[in-house]
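During the second half of the funding period, the structural biology subgroup turned its attention to how the target accommodates small molecules. The most pressing case was adenosine-5'-triphosphate, which had performed well in the primary screen but for which no bound structure existed. We therefore specified the complex as follows and requested a full 3D prediction, including the ligand pose.
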Amino acid sequence: MDQEKQTQLLSVRNLKKYFPLKVSWLKAFSKERSYVRAVDDLSFEIKYGETLGLVGESGSGKTTVGRTLIRLESPTDGHILFEDVDLAKISGESLRVKRQHFQMIFQDPMASLNPYMRVGNAIGHPLKIHHIGNKSERKMHVYEILNKVGLPPEEFYNRFPRHLSGGQRQRVVIARAVITSPKFVVADEVTAMLDVSIRSQILKLLIEMKNELGLTYLFITHDLASAKYICDRIAVMYLGKIVEIAKTYDIFKEPLHPYTKILMASVPVPDPKMKTKKFIPTGEIPSPINIPSGCRFHPRCPYATKTCSKIEPELKDVNGRLVACHLYDQNGKN
Ligand SMILES: Nc1ncnc2c1ncn2[C@@H]1O[C@H](COP(=O)(O)OP(=O)(O)OP(=O)(O)O)[C@@H](O)[C@H]1O
Ligand SMILES: [Mg+2]
């Protein structure tokens, strides 16, 4: 058990993040306040050096998980154990000190770069904030990292973001995120705004940086092909819950949860003549304000039974895999 504990960088227990809905001041003090239950009781681990993928439809709570793990949001409840410190319970200076171990890379590199800051200064900024090195040491470090991300420093150090291509901007953002050698990086849809031809280069760069600097990633994406390429394990989210977690190979070979099956069926097949079995979800993803009773996926699930509308399934071990679905009750497949 202790040995297992040592392999976990992050251990998340019963994490919740609810956003209160804006209401008129008359209702503000009522006990019946409504919440967006964006993250609704998640427990999972992230091992040292792994890339855990987080996939699921828009609005399922992926970004909120990433932001809450690194305390850009305060959790409503639960624990985020990071090297024996519960990030959910700290604030002020203790949180500031821990923050240098985390970074987040966002979808839109242009929006996350200051248009008036030159590339070299932008990349060196986290070193300055965390008082790492003197001016010339910081500059040397920026030169090194620019070389690592494939942007020759002589050419790029003094450029402004507007004079870069989308792929080059994302390289700058990655360089800035990894320059302090953080322990944990949340990469949120980092290739979504890039041309398909550039995507694989950026994924390769993320893998290179991970191997060289010993990073651990939470890789959030809509793009299952990218997840398949980069992730060691994948967690599937539906309406604030994780419905399945498995090794990437296993989840693509044999998805267990009906929702995962639907997601996998949406991955384009290289051979257009090849027929895939399509599971079409009926209806729209429900609102995270009025979450369906029982299994929250039951209104759209082709296999739903009466139990599914009444009892919420737990994420549990099914032949060595973790899945939250009544189809697998009694530890076996139906
Ligand atoms: N600051 C906030 N205040 C209120 N509601 C929020 C806030 N941030 C997120 N939400 C809501 O929480 C839910 C989950 O949002 P989130 O952005 O985490 O989903 P996502 O899975 O990342 O979606 P996408 O794939 O579109 O990026 C959504 O219903 C969203 O509207
Ligand atoms: Mg998101």
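Two results from this model are relevant to the next phase. Residues 19, 36, 38, 56, 58-64, 222, 288 surround adenosine-5'-triphosphate (ligand 1) (CB under 6 Å). Confidence is low (pLDDT under 50) at residues 274-279.
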